[in-house]
Amino acid sequence: MHIHILGICGTFMGGLAVLAKQAGHTVTGCDANVYPPMSTQLESQGISLIEGFDPSQLELNPDLYVIGNVVSRGNPLMEAILDRGLRYVSGPQWIGEQLLRDKWVLAVAGTHGKTTTSSMLAWILEYAGYSPGFLIGGVPLNFGVSARLSGRSGDVGGAQKETHHASDFFVIEADEYDTAFFDKRSKFVHYHAKTAILNNLEYDHADIFPDIGAIETQFHHLVRTVPRIGRLIVNAKEQTLRNVIARGCWSEKEAFSDGDDQTDWYFRLQENEDFEVFFRGQSQGVVAWQLNGAHNRMNAIAAIAAARHVGVAPQLAIEALARFVNVKRRMEKRGEVAGICVIDDFAHHPTAIATTLEGLRRQVGKGRILAVLEPRSNTMKMGAIKQALPASLSAADKAYVFGAQEGKDAIGWDLASTFQELGSRVATHHVLSELVNAIVLDAIPGDTVLVMSNGGFGGVHQLILNALEKKFNAVI
């Protein structure tokens, strides 16, 4: 089958394109902006890309158009597809029907931690010899790719493991964002998960959800799709998730927490960032790893619980996590100059920002943290959660907040007044070069510069490193 993908350069749709190609389909696609790294990744897979949405693309005569949620009414190619009555389907529906129908789907849902938890879970299954397929909204460094249809069965990590048929299991990041302009249900209802992690639930996506109750409704749609023989892995700390489950639950359910021994799964923090895992009061072992932060421990225990549902012993999952390397753009070190470390992180919600900074504080102790934030997500730009942002930066010694003044990434509210409660500890900027100059002027050896954004941020990481090198006459 020849499929033509509208909006192919997004993380989800780009992953879909790779999976479709691996499944043997002819794949082409288009997007408003076709540029590296996604364009390079797709072209290396033999996928032809077209920039823009000109109706002339109908001449490709594909069997089916797969529509990303970046496409809306008024898009010239979409309008031509509708006018001619051509076959089209949303990306999530296509994946659900064509790739996931015969697989044991493990779906990871939540406001935060979906990418990291999905990566942990996929790696645990890989290490156990299950060779899962996966579609993740980031690049797990253990794999080097964000999507694959399946891996090769065999030995992993140098140890003999039981192997399974390569097509049996599929891990997917289950996003609550809407499916397409013609399907306003969340993407995850199309995946028909047998194992579903409900990691957390807070207000987000202010551009499509009017309130937290609307998101709870979508999460309950997910719960309704899990079969009786399926299992929900639920964060017991979240009142919002308790609200979701109270609406009805027809599947097995296991709860996890960060220390409540009344839940099925919990952990106890040990020295450094190691933690002991318990299942129904019985110790399963100690996770010894390099990651930090309470959020990552919660992600890990959810992944261990989900893996157990498909037969992976918790002890083996714990062994796998000791070899987990995290995800690109999750506390990723980008460079160091004169003892000043620059780290990139995807945090883009007040809770994620706070937990990331708290974890880093445990790691660096009394060392200074310079936090650099770009409030770039739709929810951030709309100002729906702006009042929570100052407190989320409290663990930083100094904070620098950037908001573009013009163009599609322009911030829609006043930065200075929002962050004024932080006083001299915060500086707000609207010109990238001025932001970089301010950071570099303040930075001293021993500092950690933590950059947080869900976008490219104008390449600010390398700009900071270059400016630091010039300042200290050092070599990266």
UniProtKB/TrEMBL annotation:
<dbReference type="InterPro" id="IPR000713">
    <property type="entry name" value="Mur_ligase_N"/>
</dbReference>
<dbReference type="InterPro" id="IPR036565">
    <property type="entry name" value="Mur-like_cat_sf"/>
</dbReference>
<dbReference type="InterPro" id="IPR013221">
    <property type="entry name" value="Mur_ligase_cen"/>
</dbReference>
<dbReference type="InterPro" id="IPR004101">
    <property type="entry name" value="Mur_ligase_C"/>
</dbReference>
<dbReference type="Pfam" id="PF02875">
    <property type="entry name" value="Mur_ligase_C"/>
</dbReference>
<dbReference type="InterPro" id="IPR036615">
    <property type="entry name" value="Mur_ligase_C_dom_sf"/>
</dbReference>
<dbReference type="GO" id="GO:0008360">
    <property type="term" value="P:regulation of cell shape"/>
</dbReference>
<comment type="function">
    <text>Reutilizes the intact tripeptide L-alanyl-gamma-D-glutamyl-meso-diaminopimelate by linking it to UDP-N-acetylmuramate.</text>
</comment>
<dbReference type="GO" id="GO:0106418">
    <property type="term" value="F:UDP-N-acetylmuramate-L-alanyl-gamma-D-glutamyl-meso-2,6-diaminoheptanedioate ligase activity"/>
</dbReference>
<dbReference type="GO" id="GO:0005524">
    <property type="term" value="F:ATP binding"/>
</dbReference>
<dbReference type="GO" id="GO:0071555">
    <property type="term" value="P:cell wall organization"/>
</dbReference>
<keyword id="KW-0573">Peptidoglycan synthesis</keyword>
<dbReference type="GO" id="GO:0009252">
    <property type="term" value="P:peptidoglycan biosynthetic process"/>
</dbReference>
<keyword id="KW-0961">Cell wall biogenesis/degradation</keyword>
<dbReference type="InterPro" id="IPR050061">
    <property type="entry name" value="MurCDEF_pg_biosynth"/>
</dbReference>
<feature type="domain" description="Mur ligase central">
    <location>
        <begin position="108"/>
        <end position="307"/>
    </location>
</feature>
<dbReference type="GO" id="GO:0009254">
    <property type="term" value="P:peptidoglycan turnover"/>
</dbReference>
<dbReference type="Pfam" id="PF01225">
    <property type="entry name" value="Mur_ligase"/>
</dbReference>
<dbReference type="InterPro" id="IPR005757">
    <property type="entry name" value="Mpl"/>
</dbReference>
<keyword id="KW-0133">Cell shape</keyword>
<feature type="binding site">
    <location>
        <begin position="110"/>
        <end position="116"/>
    </location>
    <ligand>
        <name>ATP</name>
    </ligand>
</feature>
<dbReference type="GO" id="GO:0051301">
    <property type="term" value="P:cell division"/>
</dbReference>
<keyword id="KW-0132">Cell division</keyword>
<keyword id="KW-0067">ATP-binding</keyword>
<feature type="domain" description="Mur ligase N-terminal catalytic">
    <location>
        <begin position="2"/>
        <end position="99"/>
    </location>
</feature>
<feature type="domain" description="Mur ligase C-terminal">
    <location>
        <begin position="329"/>
        <end position="455"/>
    </location>
</feature>
<keyword id="KW-0436">Ligase</keyword>
<keyword id="KW-0547">Nucleotide-binding</keyword>
<keyword id="KW-0131">Cell cycle</keyword>
<comment type="similarity">
    <text>Belongs to the MurCDEF family. Mpl subfamily.</text>
</comment>
<keyword id="KW-0460">Magnesium</keyword>
<dbReference type="Pfam" id="PF08245">
    <property type="entry name" value="Mur_ligase_M"/>
</dbReference>
<protein>
    <recommendedName>
        <fullName>UDP-N-acetylmuramate--L-alanyl-gamma-D-glutamyl-meso-2,6-diaminoheptandioate ligase</fullName>
        <ecNumber>6.3.2.45</ecNumber>
    </recommendedName>
</protein>
<comment type="pathway">
    <text>Cell wall biogenesis; peptidoglycan recycling.</text>
</comment>
